[in-house]
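Course assignment 3, question 2. Fill in each field.
Student: A.L.
Task: Predict the tertiary structure for the chain below.
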Amino acid sequence: MTEKDLISLETLLEHPDVEKVTHKVNPQLIKRRESIPPHCKVFDCPCTILATRDQYQFEIDSEAARQLPDIINNQVQAVEGVDSPSSEQKSTFGRERAIGVVFSGGPAPGGHNVIAGIYDAATRANPKTRVLGFLMGPDGVIENEYVALTREIVDNYRNLGGFGMIKTGRTKIDSVNKVSSARQTCKDLRLDALVIIGGDDSNTNAAFLAQELKRDGIQVIGVPKTIDGDIQVRDVEGNVLCAMSFGFHTAARAFASEISNLCTDASSDVKYWHICKVMGRVASHLALEVALQTHANLTLIGEELSEYVDYDRIKKAEAQGATDYTAYGMTLRHLSRVICNGVIRRAAVGKNYGVMVIPEGVLEFINEIQTFIIKLNTIIADFNEMHDRPFHLEFQRLEEKLEYLRRLARRSREDDRFTLWNTRDDDLFSDLPIFFQEGLLMERDSHGNFPFSQVETDKVIMGLVQDYLAWLRDQGKYKVGLKRDYYEKTMKKGGLDPFLFGPILFRNFQDGQFLLVKEEIMSLKTLTQELIRGGAIKEGEAIPAAVQTIYKKSEPSFKTQVHFYGYDGRGSDPTWFDCTYTYNLGLTVFSLIANGATGQMASIRNLERDFETWEPIGIPIGPLMHLEERMGKLTLVIEKSTVQVNSASFQVVKNLREKWLAAHPGEDDFRRPGPICLGDLRSEDRPITLALNALGSIPLEE
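Answer field:
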């Protein structure tokens, strides 16, 4: 075909197939939008009622009772179907309503299906019911900015990720003026109910709004959203009422799919350690789920680190008649040694590569880091109180600040009563990378708090790992194991007797499948000396080329690639689990509204079990709240849920660590979770952590 035979650009652009293949709506998107998630059986009924489940009780904070008197005595309510409703039930359930919905905080996959569930249930009960979506998060409520949701709008976003339908924002309705504006908006729009879809802070906000708006007859319902998985609800007896917030499964699967690809790449290129930091600032649920999904070689779980106890230090202190409180909680130095141990063991069997998963908030679980922050906050505050010039003006360079800390350490040696900053503190602080020392000594915010979000977690940990591995390499303790047959083939090819050189070169030549060069051979100079000592070469002779090849192959090179997984996962299209979960949450929300509930959080009980056992419920938000220090003052909040180290899911991961590290000859144990496919029956139907925890709660047969 000649150039003049080619189709013109103008003709090409007008071709219908060009529009077809480049259109933003593709077959996969159409299939997603058209898919209908299953719904709980109770929603088949013409109407629903609420049944109180008073067997579930909570420990109520006295301050919550004082601030939330009208909703603090709410009980757990289960949604029950009514097959033959009375005329009064029909009238109440099906009356015309106006319902406002708002997204609050970061996106989480499945949010659109919450709205779809609300819209479907509300318009099925009464086609005249209005569902209004507030734009740009809580600001939309405050500023009365909204869009009237229609079937077309809702259908365009079914089963899709993000919060694009109405957008989101992080504003909190937490002041008198903001509450007043929100109340006025609700009155102006004649809202019967406001639905807040958000995380722990947003549901806390929902509780206060429910209290404030109750006398106006406006209901407020919360919906638990966060990819971190840190909204989980149990009663005082430990009964699970909300096993996981929505969006978690999708984010974990999205991260796992990408990290699985790195596992494949690492075992193909055999050159890099991939360091994968995943979202989760105060809880390691995502890291735990990703570990189960991928079988990454190393996974750090922050909650485990905080539970660590150094019994050797305790015994040493007891022998001296003292108590070493620093033995509780893992130090950064020890953590770096644990990681290095895994790296070295894999290298010893020829695997100088791997994949490591780190939760972004892991440093918050390191006891010494929290101790440093508390001590340095006190040191800086005391200095500012006692001197005319503040600490950060008096000591502007890092070296000046470090010298001041050294003076305090010397003071602790001279005065037993001074314990704020001792020699061990100073030694541990000196182990930290320079940039992290600077970070810990940076100026505090207006409340005196340390800005933790500015810390590069992976850089702190891997800096220590790099340093220690370099030291171990210089000591001859970090080597790459070589296959015996490779060694023998290389030596024979070079005209050398492998059985003559073997005992001289290797520490395990007698029985090693992977041969490790002796620790004392750590340079070409020491290699030469060892060869002369063993009689393989004479003084002044050069090292044979084949031996040099073997030596160079044994030298490790710790190369890393760092990856962060966060925004990509929270923007992913939801898994079938999250599509189903959130759609049923939306249906639950409407049942709570239709039956007069307020100050409740929509939830699905038995989420960790088979779909047929799912039970839509409303959980009282007020009893979930307790006092916690935020921004330097005590505030009522919903407690974040962290990984329980005694849970079945964590114990399984803990016991499979050695297998997944795969520090042995042979293949790695990587798992391929595959991409997120809507309705793919071959993928798991719930988070693996939930499945394992459910199995762990089954009573043993007698």
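Instructor remarks: Residues 8 and 14 are 10 Å apart (CA to CA). The mean pLDDT is 93.
Grade: pending
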